[in-house]
Predict the structure.
Amino acid sequence: MVHSPLWCRRYFLPADPDLGVSTESYTGMVNESHLASTAGTKKEDNGGRLRRNVILGMAGLVAVLTILFIAMLLLSIVGGESFAGAVRTIRDLVIIFLVLEGILIILALAILVLQVARLVNLIQTEVKPMLDTTQSTLSTVRGTVDFMSENLTQPIVRASGFLTGVSVLTSNLFGIRRALKHANGEKSHNAQ
């Protein structure tokens, strides 16, 4: 196989074989073992990328907050009284924002409780009657099976047992007669 440069693989091959593009037309460009090895590590790459992105995002957030804290600290030291008024205004706006956010969270929890109550009501009014109907149907089927067992199956089994006994008795009786006839026939043969 001919190994292609990295740019051929990156720009001319599909990133995912599941896209429906045949890789047979690219046999001269890429080693199949490379395709197989990259297909197996795709899931691992996604997990590694996600972890790396989360770590980078958290590091960026910490860096931005640290820079803002240092900037505010420097402005409070240098700015004096005029900066203190701006900080109070920003503080008040943040408090108002947090109160509004708390109200939204309480409303969301109230809606959640109402939805759970509706679900419980639905279960009690819709599902429970279906379960009761199913239980009554099962008890009816159980009664039918017991009735059929007592009134149909047991008499048939008894009759079958009786007829089997009669047939065995009959075959034994005929077997005794044959044995007696056969014994009488041998005596007459021996007498001659």
About this structure: DSSP finds four helices and no strands in the chain. Helices lie at 6-12, 32-40, 42-79, 81-191. Residues 1-40 form one domain.
